[in-house]
Amino acid sequence: MSKITQGTRSRWIPGPLYTVLYMASMRTQIYLTDEQRTRLDVLGKREGKALAALVRDAVDEYLDHSVPDAETALAATFGVLPELEVPSRDEWERA
To answer: Which residues contact residue 43 at a Cβ distance below 8 angstroms, ignoring those fewer than 6 apart?
Structure first.
């Protein structure tokens, strides 16, 4: 950080190291139950990771598996309604 003085006022300007380490992430507050926090603390000690790293890993895992891509969704639902009758184009009303 660099200190800049203008008249009688001074302020600190973040340097490149601060920007690289802290600005790439967004601070977010979450509420955990006592059990969740205890289990995360145990896991963190076992894996040598900070609580924030464990939460980021869990969020990444959830996001990677929560929404299938369009091709996977189409493949999973293709032929689900084989009895579905679709009217011919001749029956469509034209405005």
So the answer is: 49, 54
The tens digit of pLDDT for each residue in 23-46 reads 577 889 999 999 999 999 999 999
State pTM to two decimals: 0.49
- Determine, yes or no, domain membership for 95: no
Give me the residues paired with residue 9 across strands.
6
Tokens of 35: 């059990």
Q: Name the 3-class secondary structure at 86.
A: coil
Closest CA to 26 of 65, 66, 2, 55: 55
Range of the domain at 62: 2-70
The answer to whether the beta carbons of residues 21 and 10 sit under 8 Å apart is no
Decide: helix, strand or coil at residue 66: helix
